[in-house]
Amino acid sequence: MARVTFYLDDKIVETEVEQGATLLEAASISGIYVNSNCGGEGICGTCKFLIKDGQIERGPAGLLTKEEVEEGYVLACQTKVLGDVKVEVPLETRIEEGQILIDKDAKKLRTIRAGGEEVFFTREPLVDKLYLELPKPSLDDNLSDHQRLYRKIRSKKKVPILQTGLTMLQEIPTILRDNQWAITATLGMMGDTTELLQVEGGDTSGRNYGIAVDIGTSTVVVHLVNLNSSKTVDGEAKYNSQMKYGEDVIRRIIHADEEGPEELHSLIIDDINGLISTLIFRNKVRRDDITSVSCSGNTTMLHFLLNLPASWIRKTPYVSASASPPPIKATELGIKINKGGLVYVVPMIGGWVGGDITAGILACGMDKSEKLSLLIDIGTNGEIVIGNKDWMISCSASAGPAFEGTGAESGMRASRGAVEHVTMNDGRIDYSTIGDGKPKGICGSGLIDLVAELFKAELIDRRGALDPRKSDRIRERDGQSEFVMVPGSKTEIGKDIVITQPDIENLLRAKAAIYAGANILIKSLGLEFKDFERILIAGGFGSYLDRRKTQILGLIPDIPLERIQFVGNTSIIGAKMALLSREALDACHRIAESVTYIDLISYPNYYDEFMAAMFLPHTDLERFPTITQELSREV
């Protein structure tokens, strides 16, 4: 074993690892989140550590500069620990506490207001508690304990098919008599069957909680819900620990294919259990009082949750192992709640359109609305749905990590010190950062703002090309152009914060993928963007966007701004709705089965549509008339 000491500003973290482990593995064991876009393959150059002292085996320098190598920088994923070592983790390498959208202020779930409409579902939690006072047996009423309990349950609740496991059957007689026939029955929905999960003495019906989970590629969000009042008690979030195996799901699937899915499964279960423990401690809730969990997420994340093989999701014809898993005992997955508790998974639409989109459709009321709507969940995949209560069609556009802020020269996730908004006036740059401190990078919303402002100021052309003649902030470095947004003297990291020409091109590719995907769906039905009464932007990222600047970029169409609505983390909202209402869960299954999925790769004109969208705001300026007019110049 070898001791690794990590230095993070005024904080020191120590751990022990086996000799031969990489520094990236050591950081993961220590709970230190590190940028590692490529999942440890040594090709992204984001996991830079500074060696202070110790025994290491240096791997390939990869994307490190000559100066960085001379200073002692290494790539954590390529550097092995041979003995005790001391390492400094630079600010720009770390992923700190993020601005993860929790939405825990959405208190009531019986009535959901989303996308400007109200959606109503009958409150009927998937797991319910009933306090029952049973009549004692007599010669005139000598029904067995088992049937006596069933009779009482059915007098309170309509349950045609009721079942009980053997262990519970063995416990019922004693529990009934020890508590003078006054007990609380916990009932869980298992499809068309209701299962008696637990029998407790006395009245515990007032203590019934559920957990709603949104498993994102980057973040995991958990809400604690009071199933009796329908209120969200609290919420918590963290970065997905699977990130050490790559920013995107493809890299994680490949890792699972090579090493087995068990570790990826364990990581997500540990994340969920950790968040549940935090909520239990903070709100003084008994673990046994948590009786159900509802999980939403993309198809790959839900497969890792259930420890299902995900190999065929990434291979033609992109088939999942299961799109609609049955309810599962929490103990089978290792989720630490009541021993009889159940886990429900929001059904998935397809290999690349998962339960998070099913939940989003439910939360926005698209499946009940007369209005023609366009739902865009902006993220690594960029899922898109159009339609109304009569029909819906979807696709997934691979946008990559550009909107997450990672992959850019000065890019970072939405965490403390990230520039999130940018404006430019007469050459002056104003910006705001998360936490209001000195900047140390730019997150996704900041990148979109900056590119839009550069375009408005004519510092880049419609192709996104920087023009060094227009500003002394544009310079050449290592053979490529870059714009210096904040000089190093004003940053927390002591380095210039820049946007490079490749950064701009990556952002344009990401926005082009999403716009082209939406446009293909719309054109395939003979529609135009102007036909939509509302465009719904979902996801934590969307909540921090400037609508007009997003239009200037060409990510969303040029329609009246009042039609564009940010609907928040609809994945967690939909998961809560399903948790609280059998009717809502049934609606999820109908949605998943009814949405038509289109594979963009097989669409004959997708590449042409994609290339046309690579310009600012688009090759066809007639699609963005108000943007052209606003800029007051010939663009």
Which tags fit this structure?
single chain; 635 residues; alpha/beta; Ubiquitin-like (UB roll); Nucleotidyltransferase, domain 5; 5 domains; 6-stranded mixed beta sheet; 29 strands; 27% helix; globular
Structure explained in plain terms:
It is a single chain. With 635 residues, the chain is of the alpha/beta class. The chain folds into five domains: 2-93, Ubiquitin-like (UB roll), CATH 3.10.20; 127-201, Ubiquitin-like (UB roll), CATH 3.10.20.880; 213-345, Nucleotidyltransferase, domain 5 (2-Layer Sandwich); 366-401 and 508-626, 2-Layer Sandwich (Nucleotidyltransferase, domain 5); 402-500, no CATH class. It contains 16 helices and 29 strands. A six-stranded mixed sheet has the order 14-13-12-15-17-16, with helices on both faces. A six-stranded mixed sheet has the order 28-27-18-19-20-29, with helices on both faces. A five-stranded mixed sheet has the order 2-1-5-3-4. A hairpin with a 2-residue loop joins strand 10 (182-190) and strand 11. Helix 9 crosses helix 13 (570-580), helix 9 crosses helix 14 and helix 10 crosses helix 12 (547-553). The termini are far apart. The model is unreliable at 104-116 (pLDDT under 50).
Name of the CATH first level of the largest domain: Alpha Beta
Number of strands: 29
Distance between the termini: 62 Å
Percent of residues in β-strands: 25-35%
Helix content: 25-40%
* Spatial strand order of the main sheet: 14-13-12-15-17-16
Please tally the helical runs, counting DSSP H or I stretches of 4 or more residues.
Answer: 16
**CATH level-3 fold name of the largest domain:** Nucleotidyltransferase, domain 5
